Amino acid sequence: MSAILYHMPYFVSSVVANLIGELGISEKVQVKIIGFDNLKDEFHLAKHPQGKVPFYIEVEDDFTMIESSAIFLYLLEKHDTEKKLSNWKDAKERGQFYQFLLNCPCQIYPNLAQLFYQFLNEKGSPMRDENLITKNLNAWHFEIAPFLVKYLGDKPYFFGDQFTAVDILLGYQMVLAELVGQLKDYPTLVAYLLRLRERPAFTNIYNEANKIYLPDMTKYSVAIQRKIQREEKLASEKGLDYKFA
Ligand SMILES: N[C@@H](CCC(=O)N[C@@H](CS)C(=O)NCC(=O)O)C(=O)O
Fold it and tell me: Where is the GST N-terminal domain (predicted)?
């Protein structure tokens, strides 16, 4: 095994794990689940500056990459040699692939992830920011979802009849939208998600069993404490008066 993707189910690393499944390259790229116990440990922080997932390592020369979309594009270019998932019909279609490659992690995912984390807090909890929830719900319902509904139209997949790498990127956003209860108003997106669920590589990543990895505040707090302790230690070594607020 020469390469490893470090992944946490339902985290944004899922798009890369899903790509590996679709390409059938799990013999070449091992998908390793990093559990809450190892999240933000010394090894993790040495490989990813924020202790996030995904990160990807080619073991022989310790070549390391972070950022889901960069790893996604790297693996697609390296392994989709038969253009099974990236047979773009022209430069414009390639451009639109780049559009979603950036729009998913920069716009859609942060919007839905913030809703997910906010909804972990009970109504009335001081941790819950209703303004942030409203802002993210508005962005989803008034901007993002209408854009996706219009783009998909009555096509089975985002670029037409053929499933492509773009559907891996957007499939994750559909899963998140469903998790935060915001997909049901959009029948075409619901039908699209059902279509994706017919793919074994998709259900291998997004299934009930893997939901044990969905964050809750208790599981996550150990990793956060570990990060805070490390930062306070580094700050004191540098003589900085730094306390995590
Ligand atoms: N822009 C980064 C975002 C990475 C990211 O935010 N990962 C989240 C999961 S979805 C994470 O690892 N969170 C754990 C943490 O922050 O402790 C990417 O697309 O790879």
Answer: 1-83
